[in-house]
Amino acid sequence: MGKAKPKFKGPQKEMTAEQAEKLRKWHDVALSLRKPGTVDWREAVVSRTRVEYFRGKDMAEHLKSHTATIDNALDGIDTASMPVDEQVQLFMTVMIQMGLAIRADRVEADRTPRQGKKGLIKWPKKLLQLPGEDQVWNPKAFYIWSFARPTSPWLYLGSISIVLLVAAVCLYPLAPLKLKWQVISVLSVLLILMFVLIALRGLIYAVIWLATGRHVWLLPLFFADVSVRESFSVLIAESVDDDGKPVERSPFWTRLVAIAVAVAVVHALRSVAPDRAATARRVKRMNRSVMEYFELLSMDDMAKLGGASGDFVSEADAANIDLSETQPGDLNEDATGGTSSAADGDTRANPDQYREGAPNQQIHDEEL
């Protein structure tokens, strides 16, 4: 693989052969510092651009334990008589002057501790590039690599895996029925666990808030813009303000009003809720619709459903039925051409008699 070329912002000046050779030398040194097991780095966003950066203290620790890197880069300079801290500072000053490392700082939102944390986040997800006059070496600062690393074989493997995953999703309708059930089961379990966790967070918050007025959250970083690992790093914590202090407790009358509103909402929902039998029928109908949508029914299951429901008409077939030529009166005419009456089972004339006379037919229609 070819070496990545350094990228510079602003107008480029013409370099002499000696300067170009010096730049290539320092670029090779910088590439050696980006190999696995050298200086730790992370990804961040700077002005809507994803970059890779390192912490100054990590670079200083690595250079102090690998002084040969400094000696090879600062060829011609007597570094043996210099303290190691001065060697690191001189090395990084040249790196910054070459444009290989650019100093950056935290954005305003990351300059205060996160909820449940005492210190600042170690690896921010967003950074702010500092102006030219602030481009100096500071072990406590962050520095952006201004050039791209050589493409890793893992990147090609990841790209191929994504393509195969998309192809597998597109081929889902052709997958065996057993595999479909496994995929839906795994995704359903994950979705249920997520909703249960969200409901548990809300329940714990509501109970503690109603009892004490404090704003305490389970997994406070669950919805924060952090990695999955950091989302579960804090189990429970109290909400804090911009100064890092706990949020002021809610007064008693506010909690009392919240309890009254909650009771009223629960009572209103109970008054309009359907009975258990109707709910069971609707759940059964929705369950069958979901299985039909994801094509989880075998031919035997579809035949059983068709036999149990008589002349079963699927949604696709029902959509193709042309009712434009059907007159409203035709639906009330019997096979002999006469109109139906209450004695013949006209539901509009006597709906109560129809319900009592054909309860099985009513339930059958509701199930469909």
From TrEMBL:
GO terms for cellular component: endoplasmic reticulum membrane. The chain crosses the membrane at residues 154-175, 181-204, 216-237, 252-272. It is a multi-pass membrane protein. Its main location: endoplasmic reticulum. Residues 324-368 are annotated as: Disordered. PANTHER family: TRANSLOCATION PROTEIN SEC62. This is Translocation protein SEC62. It comes from Rhodosorus marinus.
